Amino acid sequence: MTASTTSFKWAIALGLTGILIGIAMAASHDHAVMPAHAHLNLLGWVSLFLMGIFYRLHPALDATRAALIQVGAWIVGTVVLAIGVAAIHLGYPAAEPVAVIGSLIVLGAMIGFAVIVFRGLARPRAAARLEPAE
Question: Is 60 inside any structural domain?
Fold first, then answer.
């Protein structure tokens, strides 16, 4: 499995989850978990899908173990963060460390993505060899 494929599949799963949370909030007229809904949609759907596009456009990076670890960390961090934020807004302030841990995992995953992007794009590509026509 590649980082892009993992990104796309999880982005869809997290995006659907975010939509379902939004529908549940609208139906119940209780928008207490709106911050968690927003984090899940932005980090889980938008950001993860954009990472997948980046990796798909850079196949040499997409196939690396570092990219798969980075995407996995992003997914875990996003889920942990969304759960922590939802719990806090549902009246469980003791869940703050959960949100903090999720935030730090996402931060680490973003730093990992930055390293992959900057190092991966800085590598010189092999020059095309031109051969004289016969």
Answer: yes
Domain coverage including residue 82? 3-122
List, for residues 39-60, the tens digit of each pLDDT value. 999 999 999 999 999 999 999 9
Alpha carbons 103 and 98: distance in angstroms, whole number: 9
Whether 32 is in a domain gets the answer yes
What pTM was estimated for this model as a whole?
0.88
* 24 CB-near residues (< 8 Å, 6+ apart): none
Instruction: Say how many domains are in the chain.
Output: 1
Residue 133 tokens, joined: 């026509």
On whether residue 128 sits in a domain, the answer given is: no
Within-domain flag for 92: yes
